[in-house]
Amino acid sequence: MAGKAWGGRFSEPTNEQVELFTESISFDARLAAVDVKGSQAHARMLAEVGLISKEEADQIQTALDEILIEIQQGKIEFSPSLEDIHMHIESALIARLGDVGRKLHTGRSRNDQVSTDIKLYVRDEIDHLDKLLQQLQRAFVSRDDDLDLILPGYTHLQRAQPVNAVHYWLAYTEKFQRDRERLADCRRRLNFSPLGAAALAGTTLPIDRDQTAKDLGFTAPAANSLDISSDRDYLAELVSSLSLIAIHLSSWAEEWILWCTTEFGFMTLSDAYTTGSSIMPQKKNPDVLELIRGKSARVIAASQQLFVLMKGLPLAYNRDLQEDKLAAFAAIDTIKSCLELAPSIVINAKLNRDKIASRIDDGFLDATALMEYLILRQVPMRTGHEIVGNLVALCESKNCRLKDLSLEEFQKTAPQIDNDVYDVLGAENAVSALRSFGSGGHDSVRHQLKLWQDRLAEN
Asked: Does pTM top 0.85 for this prediction?
């Protein structure tokens, strides 16, 4: 058992199947760079407090740099017998430096070490995800050429009211902004250093946790050593936030998949982001959007996996927590792959303007504008609602639109209606009449677009 960091009290070797069952090097190797970063900060602190010499700390830092390069170049062979990336790096360090390498783990445990590594890794990934979300926001905001286009807005997938096309793009920009803010909140809460909490109770050695926290860019040391060993709230929060990103991406993908159908005919995707059929030569399938919609299931499942993993664990560390990385890494990787493709899909999609315009007055999209016209003429809202409902029924019986009714027909139902009613009828007039803050009217949308253009230009 000499090769095991914990082998001193064992007299029998570990069963080979157990080694394979308990290893995590197959998935935690990606933590190598942050493990080295955390270990180097720990070595510097040990030297500052006099637990190792300055020369020993320098030797450790130099050797760790060399080991990381070798790992990145594939020169270090991974073995299940060494369990995880932490023990692989420590083993390589000891092979180089002997007793000097054995001193590195002074005042820490793998429990606080792994939590430190994950926090450093996740912090970097959050920063990267934020940039990807910002790029997607910029892609939507860049579609300002659509300001002159009106689209039907839907509720229950039924035509409801017309809106400026850019209103759609800004709706997703808002959703992804909330996603960015959730990630920022998660980053703020996780940014407290576990390093130096040791196994669960802290240490009798005179370590300086404030130094390592500052050195690694944490806000401060986390305050309770018992909590530190078991805390994976930050991963659950991260993956929950990623689940909402996945849901927003899936909703967007679903909408554009519908828009690309012959039945809608609103949109044509770039050939570069579609595929064909092996048997039907005419097909142009929105496979990338379908997979973005489908991959959302992985992220949502990862969130549930973490919650179930954590729900029954007593304080402090339990080996179950080794499984946390599988869920978190899967969610991070999936969201990154979706976000890396999404901006180009948004930028290169084309709206079928003529087809949209030819049907924009279908579905009585101006009915609400007519009701509000009546409200402005002192008709109670519910009465106005009923009047317009009756007028819509009349139009359906005549197979015409509201704006096709004569003034006489309007006034038979509602004497309050005057000739200026035609100023709010039709999709274009109905959109122009929208005036409330945040509405889909032309003036409101231009205002919001300018705010977003300025906001995204600043970052």
From this structure: yes
